[in-house]
Design a protein that fits this description.
With about 325 residues, the protein is of the alpha/beta class. Helices cover about 40% and strands about 15% of the residues. Strands 1, 2, 3, 4, 5 and 6 form a 6-stranded parallel beta sheet that branches. Bound molecules: zinc ion. Zinc ion (ZN) binds next to loops. The site of zinc ion has 4 residues, from loops.
Length: about 325
């Protein structure tokens, strides 16, 4: 017997909503015309778990990443404080279990690109104290730790600082996010990483040949280590165009389920970080349309539970300390 669509609680491994909090006029408590995410739409979209990314690389010059990240992290904590009835910060496995009991949205703070560390792996200890529990080494460019996809041509490995950072992350219990890494750094990081990895927002390169997407070979390597891939709603990563349909997004779920199985798939919308979301899912109130489309394409209720959030919760449970 199928569950009602509304019974699936959504987990999403990537959004850039902190960027909006840096803009005048945005109010998380209210419905916002421009942004994809706010509290009313998270509630109507049945979201129970959301990663908030701190992404400074596209907007900041060297030397200013740290300050920008402090701004974003301040907004994050202010938002949690002002919405204590609705949001709970996940800083341990216990918080992950606590949030659904209290009917709150579990929030996880992530660094998208390690630029705010300004080259020093030990700085992660301080970001950890501020609540950071997931980190991707780079955005698209090269930094002190690794190369992003736009440096793929160099075929490089992680730097010495990059290796030290991975050690620091695994000892603290910080999730490694492989999104944005160049293919050679992806392999290097994966080989060094002792825990299940996350790819927070990417799709299948077999269906859409974009450098930010993953080849079947990469997807298999993630799955071999018990990892999870959050599929993104960004049209250029789905169809290669600025327009993509829900059906085309579901094609990526179907393909990747065939390649590695449902236990490795999740949702990583990239809401508020993308200009061209899937036509039928223009904002966070519409995740239910994806759930319905997955049913239509033959996924079972149990499989949809895994995709909707259980795989992500399992990964968090395996990586964070108690
Ligand atoms: Zn991104």
């Amino acid at each position: 017997m199928s569950k009602l669509l509304t019974e699936h609680i959504i987990g999403d491994s990537h959004c850039d909503t902190l960027w909006w909090m840096d803009r005048a006029g945005y109010d998380f408590k209210q419905l916002n015309a421009s942004a994809h995410i706010d509290l009313p739409r998270l509630r109507s979209g049945k979201v129970g778990l959301l990663f908030f990314a701190v992404c400074t690389a596209p907007y900041s010059r060297p030397g200013s990443h740290l300050q920008k990240s402090m701004d974003y992290i301040r907004y994050y904590h202010q938002t949690l404080e002002q919405n204590r009835e609705d949001l709970l910060a996940v800083e341990s496995v216990a918080h992950l279990k606590q949030a659904p009991h209290e009917k709150k949205i579990a929030c996880l703070l992530a660094l998208e690109g390690a630029e705010p560390l300004e080259g020093c792996p030990d700085n992660l200890e301080l970001f950890f104290k501020l609540g950071v529990r997931a980190l991707s080494l780079t955005w698209n460019k090269r930094n002190m730790f690794a190369d992003g996809v736009s440096e793929a041509i160099t075929g490089s490995k992680l730097t010495r600082a990059g290796r030290q950072l991975l050690e620091k992350m695994s000892s603290l219990g910080v999730i490694l996010d492989l999104a944005h890494l160049s293919p050679s750094c992806f392999d290097d990081a994966l080989a060094l990483w002792p825990l299940p990895p996350l790819v927070s927002h990417a799709n299948s390169q077999a269906l859409c040949d974009h450098p930010r997407n993953l080849s079947d070979e990469q997807v298999k390597k993630v799955a071999e280590k018990g990892g999870v891939i959050g599929l993104t709603f960004n049209a250029p990563f789905i169809s290669g165009e600025t327009v993509a349909s829900l059906d085309q997004l579901v094609d990526h779920f179907v393909h990747l389920a065939r390649v590695v199985g449902v236990p490795h798939l999740a949702i990583g919308s990239d809401f508020d970080g993308i200009r061209y979301p899937v036509e039928e899912i223009p904002d966070a109130s519409c995740y239910g349309k994806l759930i319905a489309a997955l049913y239509d394409r033959g996924f079972t209720s149990t499989e949809i539970d895994l995709i909707a959030g259980e795989n992500l919760r399992r990964l968090i449970g395996a990586c964070l300390n108690e």
